[in-house]
Design brief:
Helices cover 0% and strands 50% of the residues. It is built from no helices and 11 strands. A hairpin with a 6-residue loop joins strand 5 and strand 6. The protein is globular. The protein starts with a strand and ends with a strand.
Length: 123
């Protein structure tokens, strides 16, 4: 069965860092675009970052640009989201998603979603 599992969330002080992982099982990331989304209580889901299957280009939301970095480890079938200089407004449940779309920017109808991992940034 195809699954995505996020890990690495937790509690961190403002200015700190976390690395989130998204591991795929039951399928390979090869040929898939991968995205990170987040959703805070009372707010709409926001696309944080993604990598396109067509050319491996990456996209970052303005709110995280320069602070977050998406990377992949094909051997482990895992993608990562390095989060630096964290702020309280980064507090949210973070989800990874995957689909075979060529380009990921603005795409929201992903076929596979993880269960999410909580990130809490204290001030």
């Amino acid at each position: 069965e195809a699954q995505l599992v996020e890990s690495g969330g937790g509690l961190v002080q403002a200015g700190g860092s976390l690395r989130l992982s998204c591991a795929a099982s039951g399928f390979s990331f090869d040929g898939y675009s991968i995205a990170w989304f987040r959703q805070a209580p009372g707010k709409e889901r926001e696309e944080v970052s993604c990598i396109s299957s067509s050319d491996s280009s990456t996209y970052y939301a303005d709110s995280v640009k320069g602070r977050f970095t998406l990377s992949s480890d094909n051997a482990k079938n895992t993608v990562y989201l390095e989060m630096n200089s964290l702020r309280p407004e980064d507090t949210a449940v973070y989800y990874c998603a995957a689909d075979r779309t060529w380009y990921c920017k603005g795409y929201a109808w992903y076929a596979y979603w993880g269960q999410g991992t909580q990130v809490t940034v204290s001030s």
